[in-house]
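Example S7 (structure tokens).
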């Protein structure tokens, strides 16, 4: 997948393109259904498939007090879009200048001049241009004038609940710790990624050494608790004080803890730490890892003493092992 960070980077004559526009937060099942339709359209048009998205949630500029936490970082989003099979992604910097473009100028500059759109797919709630004046009807009107068609992507709804698949719903599920339902809506396990850093090493003292993710880890962290999942090691970060990785990517079964360690009450901020099953000498410091959440084992509780904590951790590991079989 080619990534463009500005319309000016796109070479002349890049099109024709079938375009899908959206925030794509989480690149969930609803997003992928729209992209799949675009891929079918592009095959018949002998065109490229181009995702047009933004470097941040537009609400962070327009109404920051209403802006939710992102499900994925921009880098995660680009990797997920690449997995859908789009040919290119145009990442627009969403700032006051972009927000202030008249709808017609946005369409001409981005969809016509930059990518040569022949078909544009949008959601029914798509808004664009100064003051959100543009909508799918105006886009279709401009398309008839400028030579492209507009297709509105129907909502994807859960059969059992009849609820629209959305980033908002997924965010709510993760905040409740329901990673299994979130996984079904995402089409993959929810994940966070970051650098493994030094912690208090209390897990090692208890016999369960953990890989602690940095506090700036990317991705939406689910509710406090213990989870079954996987730790994917992507190797040492360039320039980090880390043991070189002899392989590109390795996946390990893991018991994952999210929270502030209430038993000892000595962790100031929520942290994600993963104990790789049956590994006590694994050195991942300075490595970039991704933690995938498969199922929730229990909530986070405080224990009165180390012995009850160790007994619970031993039971947690057994339950994680069973959950991952």
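Recovered sequence:
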């Amino acid at each position: 997948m080619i990534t463009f960070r500005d319309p000016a980077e796109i070479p002349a004559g890049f099109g024709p393109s079938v375009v899908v526009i959206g925030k794509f937060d989480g690149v969930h099942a609803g997003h992928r259904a729209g992209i799949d339709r675009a891929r079918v359209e592009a095959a018949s048009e002998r065109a490229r498939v181009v995702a047009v998205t933004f470097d941040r949630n537009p609400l962070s500029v327009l109404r920051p007090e209403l802006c939710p936490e992102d499900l994925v970082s921009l880098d995660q989003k680009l990797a997920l879009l690449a997995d859908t099979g789009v040919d290119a992604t145009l990442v627009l910097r969403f700032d006051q200048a972009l927000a202030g473009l008249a709808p017609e100028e946005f369409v001409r500059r981005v969809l016509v001049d930059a990518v040569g759109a022949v078909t544009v797919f949008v959601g029914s709630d798509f808004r664009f241009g100064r003051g959100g004046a543009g909508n799918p009807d105006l886009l279709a009107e401009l398309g008839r004038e400028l030579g492209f068609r507009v297709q509105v992507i129907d909502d994807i709804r859960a059969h059992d609940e009849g609820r629209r698949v959305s980033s908002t719903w997924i965010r709510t599920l993760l905040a409740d710790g329901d990673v299994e339902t979130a996984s079904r809506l995402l089409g993959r396990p929810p994940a966070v990624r970051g650098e493994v850093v030094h912690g208090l090493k209390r897990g090692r003292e208890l016999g369960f050494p953990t890989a602690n993710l940095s506090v700036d880890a990317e991705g939406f962290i689910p509710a406090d608790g213990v989870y079954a999942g996987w730790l994917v090691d992507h190797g040492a970060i360039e320039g980090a004080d880390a043991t070189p990785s002899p392989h590109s990517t390795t996946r390990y079964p893991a018991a994952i803890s999210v929270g502030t360690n209430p038993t000892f009450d000595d962790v100031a901020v929520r942290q994600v730490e993963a104990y790789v099953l049956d590994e006590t000498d694994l050195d991942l410091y300075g490595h970039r890892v991704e933690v995938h959440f498969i199922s929730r084992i229990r909530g986070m509780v405080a224990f009165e003493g180390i012995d009850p904590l160790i007994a619970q951790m031993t039971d947690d590991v057994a339950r994680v092992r069973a959950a991952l079989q």
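Notes on this example. The chain has two domains: 2-153, 191-323.
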